[in-house]
Structures are given as C-alpha cells and as structure tokens.
Amino acid sequence: MPHDDADTPRKIADRYVETIADLNPLVGTALGIRPGVDAMPDYSPDGREVVADAARGTLAELDAAEQAAGDGGLPVEERRAARLLRERLTASLALHDAGEGLRELSNLFSPVQSMRSVFLMMPTATDDDWAVVGRRLRNIPAAVAGFQASLDEGARRGLYAAPRQVDTVLEQLDTWLEADWYSSFVANGPDAQRDELTAAAAVAGGGLAELREHLAGYRAGAEGTPDAVGRERYTTAARYWTGSDLDLEDAYAYGWSEFHRIADEMKQAADAVLPGHTPLAVMRHLDEHGEAIEGVEEVRVWLQGLMDRAMADLDGTHVDLAEPIKHVEAMIAPPGSAAAPYYTRPSLDFSRPGRTWLPTLGETRFPVWGLVSTWYHEGVPGHHLQLAQWVHVAGRLSRYQVSLGSVSAMSEGWALYAERLMDELGYLTDPPIRLGYLDAQMMRAIRVIIDIGMHLRLRIPNGEAFHPGEVWTPELAREFFGAFNGRDTAFLDSEIVRYLGAPGQAIGYKLGERAWLAGRDAARSAQGANFDLKAWHMAALSMGSLGLDDLTDELARLP
Q1: I want to staple 544 with a disulfide (CB 3.0 to 4.6 A). Which of 239, 256, 281, 397 is the partner?
Q2: Alpha helices in 346-504 (DSSP H)
Q3: CA 466, CA 449: separation in Å to the nearest integer?
C-alpha cells in the first residue's frame, strides 16, 4: 500500500476501500468502482486470511497517522473517520480470528446469497455489460469451491453452522435450481450472445448444484450443533453489528419495556378498527377484509408511488434533497429470497439507483395495513434517504464512511426512527395503517427479547404472562412471536432462522432507534428554541457511519 507522508485517517480509509474492492470484486460491483470486472471473491481460508491481513495492515497505518497527529489531535472529520475505521476493522478481525467465516451459513448474510445477488447489481444496458455477466457466471464454480474449502476447514476444527441454517440454505438452493435462476436471469440478454449466456448460466447452475450436494454431506457433521451461540460468540457478533460493547442484560430489559409500551398502544389502535377485539384478531381481519393491492406489478407500482409522494412531501420541509437522491426504484425480490423486505443502496456514481425489494413469497394479494410504515423504513425517509445522502456527500467524507464502514445498527436505527418520524408528522393516523406501524415496532422489540434470550439462554422474567421463568428456546421464541405480531407464518418462520443465523444483527434496529432518539433529544435540549429539526436531519444524514458507542454523542453535538 504505497502512501505519502501526509497520511490521514480518511486517506487510509479510502485506500482500504480500494484494496477490498480488489480482494472482493463484489464490493467493487456494489459500489460501482470496478466496471467490467467479472471475478468472484476467494472464499477459501487463504482468501479470508488475505483480507484479514489487509485489515491488520490498515490498522498499523492508522496507528502511525494518529501518532503523527500528536497532542493536537485530529480535526473532527478525521477523528470520526479514524474512530469508525478502527472500530470496524477490530470488530471484523475478532470474527475472523474466532473462525466465524468458516461456518458462514444463513438465510441472508452468507456467500451463498451473494453468488446470486451480485448479478442484480451488475449493469446490463449494453452488449459489453452482458459479456461481463457471462464471464462472471463462469466464475461461480470457483467461488463455490473456495466456500466449500472454508466450510471443510471449519468442520476440521469442529466449527459447524447449526443444522437449521444448513437446512434453510439447502431449501434456498433447491428453489433457485428448480427455477433455473441463472438461465432466467440471462433470458433478457442480447440475442447475439444467447448461446454464450445460456452456456455460462448452465456452468453457474452446475456450481450451485455442486454446492447443494456438498452441503447435504456437511449437514451430517453439523448434527448436534446448537442454534444458540452462547455469550462469548454473541458478544463478538453483536459488536460487529452494532459498533458497541453492549450491556446485554440492559438491552434485554429494554426490549421487555418496549414490548409492554407498544402492546398498550396496539390495543388502543385495534379498538379504533374493531372495538373489543385483540390486536392479533384485528390484524387477521385486515388481512382478509382490509384494503389490499391485487397483483405483483400493481403492488410494485403502488410502493413506488408511496415513496415518490413521501419524497415530494418531505423535501424542503424536513429534509433538503439533492437531485440524484430523488430517484429510487421499487422492485420485486427474486424467488427464493428471505421473507423480509430490504433495500440496496445506489452505486457511488448513482448510475445504479437505490432500490427497495419486496419478496412476494408466491402471493398476489398484498394487504396495505402492513406495508406503509415498512416502505417508510426501507425507502423514504428511511434507508434510501440516509444511504443515498451518504453517497452524495462521499467526497467530503471518505468512501469508507459511506460504504464498507456501514454499521448495521446505525442505518437500521435511522430507518426505524424514520418510521417514528412519519408517525410524529401525522402520516400514520389511519387506524389500520397505525396498527401496522405499531406491529412493525412490536416486531423490533420482540427481536431484542428473543435474539438475546435465545442465544444467551436467558430466562423469561417471572412476572411475565408468557411462560414465566422458562429458558428461551427457538420454539418458545416462535410461539411468542406469533402470539404478539401480525406477520404471516412464513415470515415469522424465516425471521427465527435469520436471528439464529446472524446473532446480534436483529437487535440493532431498536437499540439504534434508541440512540437516534437520545441524540435528537440531547441536541434539542442543548439548543432550546434554536433547534431546527430539518437542519439537524441533514447534518445527521451527512456525517457518515458510526457505531452506537459514538452515535448519540455525535448526534447531540450537531447544529
């Protein structure tokens, strides 16, 4: 890594982005900074060690830069960049050193999903673009081989993914293979490349079939591996997802307090729809008899309109938006996706816009009551406004702060704050829509309770009506979720698998929202009558990523 004598944390961070984009070509594709690159990552143990060495080298450079700054310290922009870079790299290295990459299987966050999702991020406007797609398809088997080598090394060390995760990934692979997903994807390619793209898709599909066979054998060795990861692994993973050394008992208690607060509000909202009925009964009624959108394309168009209207309403009143940010696309997720909606951020040059994705799970009728606040979360003013604004201001921060350095709990916390903001602004007053918003809030509170509870095998408090004094298990967590949340069975089942496969990720929504609200309250208290919410929003949206250990303090200082 050649560098000059005037190294700063931001320069070091940006060099690290370039290094990782070379080592993991999917990062370059996601950021739009490696056009024409067709390689796949090296998922083997050796490949993972090279990435870890890059992180260690970058930390050494950061040490030198901070030492060179001397007693005078660093300017605020450099201080934020340095804190983030150090925290993120140490958190990632802790996972690597614990061997977590050698059992990296889940329904959302593993190389298996990346072998498909990368193609949804690649440009396909020209014949040359499609030629790159074809070459990358042919590289899928090598990526599979590297990933299998990591799983084999994990197995040799006794580091297995839990059977539930293996089974879920096997089901996903079965869905993709049955649908011949790669062939379906290239069907939109140019006629002149039809034969080559079809052949390349067959090669990629063969790689997935090989992975499916390998996982079937791996499954036998994984038998007996517990779903719960225990306190040590959970603490390491939660640090990665939240950027915080959490007091897990405090977080668990906070989840319960929010559960009870939201449950009371849900009863009031349900009474406004069907007096005398429970929230769960009212939500089931709304599923069958409430307003709904008929048709997959129709719901996509409806969601696009929802985001466009929110953008127009908020721009100039509660945020100030640059032109590139005003374009966001509602998309339908491909078959075999996990059940939760999600967002993909724009490329760094905005050539690929931000996109929200709705998994349909085979449905063609979509009740509205549960969609509105979710799309405020995924799109506008949630993920899209924050992550697209980061891209817009990348030039005055660092690429790292607006891309690789993203802390899940900060961005998910903003998106949950965005839902609450829309409630505060009066967008969720219609009783069914408000019930949907509260149901979404309840889901995030339940996540804190059961994610920590399952992995740490905590007891349910004795004063609770639900199985008091019993130790959390996945089965109890699923029962609890279904008793107090209005999502459908497939979604709830998928969520339990998700929490077990990504320990510590799901708690970041509610804990992140708590940090955002505390930061706003502190800024308002400090400024009194001079507090300007729009100015605070724009400053907050423009400071790049931070971990939760730093977020509230930084938000409190904003103008």
Answers
A1: 397
A2: 372-378, 383-392, 408-424, 431-456, 474-484, 489-501
A3: 13
- Rounded to a whole number of angstroms, the distance between the first and last alpha carbons of the chain is 38
List Cβ neighbours of 247 (8 Å cut-off, separation of 6 or more).
Answer: none
427-436: average pLDDT:
97
Residue at token pair 């089965």:
475
Q: Which two tokens stand for residue 399?
A: 């690429």
**Average pLDDT estimate for 121-131:** 96
Pairwise CA distance, residues 206 & 307, whole Å: 39
Angstrom distance (rounded) from CA 140 to CA 143: 5
* SS3 of residue 215 by DSSP: helix
What are the tens digits of pLDDT across the range 282-307? 999 999 999 999 999 999 999 999 99
d(CA 149, CA 46): 9
Q: What is the DSSP string of 513-529?
A: HHHHHHHHHHHHHHHGG
In angstroms, the CA 363 to CA 195 distance is 33
What pLDDT does 69 receive?
87
pLDDT per residue over 155-178, tens digit each? 999 999 999 999 999 999 999 999
The Cα–Cα gap between 494 and 175 comes to 15
Distance CA 446, CA 326 (A): 33
Domains of the chain: which residue ranges?
A: 9-227, 238-508
Show the CA angle centred on residue 131, arms to residues 349 and 208, nearest 5°. Answer: 95
Distance (Å, whole) CA 386 – CA 393: 11
